[in-house]
Write a structure and sequence with these properties.
Two copies of one chain form a homodimer. By secondary structure, the first copy, chain A, is an alpha/beta fold. Chain A has two domains: 4-81, Arc Repressor Mutant, subunit A, CATH 1.10.10.10; 88-201, 3-Layer(aba) Sandwich (Rossmann fold), CATH 3.40.50. Chain A has nine helices and ten strands. In chain A, the strands form two sheets. The first copy, chain A, has a seven-stranded mixed beta sheet with strand order 6-7-5-4-8-9-10, with helices on both faces. In chain A, helix 1 packs antiparallel against helix 4 (71-81). The radius of gyration of chain A is 20 Å and the shape is elongated. Chains A and B meet through helix 1, helix 5, strand 10 and helix 9 of A and helix 1, helix 5, strand 10 and helix 9 of B.
Chain lengths: 209, 209
């Protein structure tokens, strides 16, 4: 079926802001609030309210009343526009603290990120269960990824093992790597890497402290 | 003393790229490589090599030879330009998996981020040690933050406790919050929040999958 929501192409900045609006809306719903104004969103995020209105105008959002946007409808508009319902299958590679934190993060599912497996090479961890998912021997990655049709590998191994693990991910025919390691990976042209550059974020934030 | 490196004002995008170049250079040093070309950096990051040269030209970097940049000197130039030596004191609030992962991340120190304390409200965790740092009762945050002169609070508590914990951080006179929770915080004008919007990143990355 033709989906009117998926026509748009949002820039990365717009996607980033819409996700933050979505967090605010979710909290408003928890608090039982029905309406929200662009000014309220803008104040929380310290941006201009004309920016908020401009972003929301990009959505096919009908839930506007005299007292503000209808929280539930705006939330649904964002979810449809950003494709939350397009589920992607991901595996986490590296069951250390960060991998565990991500495996336990139930929020992912509502954004369409379905963590279906968890891999490690540590015999003491293999077989244990985290949030309903068994930790599998990394050796079995190619076979399991093929069986499950895994789209994304979330890489949370120590930096020194990052490249060799990436090589195994590539062999497993996974085309998207969300890289949480501090190593820049070498990958073939048909594989895309998203570097979650935590230290870059930190330096952007603290540069002027 | 007047520091020639600190005159520049880098944009967030430049800071982000320079941090990634730094990761590459660190790995080159580990591998014993002495020189690197803008082309090599550009290929790894899939950006244009003219962009790499432009970024490096912003640094006070003298280490250029006919065979490329001198890896060690370029690394030092980036560190000085981005102020890695300006140490900031941070505490982690929330000793769950994510907080633990960040507490164990030794890399932070080389970027000038010094994690000096770790807080939680769980009696089973208080008193335990993570990476040489004792977990302290969150009740003592105002007192400890004042004593230590803590600059940054890294917030890794569950979303539903985010705002009340932020209120305590504000009371403790900490002016910078690195927010890993999915909650948008309400803070006074003199407090800055950096939202580590993991789901925003994810959606930017997977929007076209």
């Amino acid at each position: 079926m033709y989906n009117v929501y998926m026509q748009k192409n949002f820039s990365e900045k717009v996607i980033n802001r819409l996700t933050l609006y979505h967090c605010i809306l979710r909290d408003y719903i928890t608090e039982g609030k029905e309406y929200i104004s662009s000014k309220q969103i803008a104040t929380l995020l310290r941006i201009d309210d004309s920016q908020v209105r401009k972003d929301i105008n990009l959505l096919n959002n009908s839930g506007k009343s005299r007292v503000g946007y209808i929280v539930k409808e705006l939330k649904t508009s964002i979810e449809k526009s950003l494709g939350f319902e397009k589920t992607k299958k991901a595996c986490i590679i590296g069951a250390g603290n960060l991998g565990m934190a991500l495996a336990k993060y139930d929020n992912f599912t509502s954004y369409g990120l379905n963590i279906i497996s968890l891999f490690d090479n540590d015999k003491n961890k293999i077989g244990k269960e985290i949030n309903g998912k068994k930790i599998i021997d990394i050796k079995n990655l190619p076979e399991i990824a093929l069986r499950d049709g895994t789209d994304i590998a979330i890489l949370t191994v120590p930096g020194m093992f990052a490249q060799q693990t990436a090589n195994l991910i590539i062999k497993s025919n996974i085309k998207y790597i969300w890289n949480f390691t501090p190593t820049v990976l070498e990958v073939p042209a048909d594989v895309q890497v998203w570097n979650e550059n935590l230290m870059g974020t930190f330096l952007q934030f603290t540069y002027n402290i």
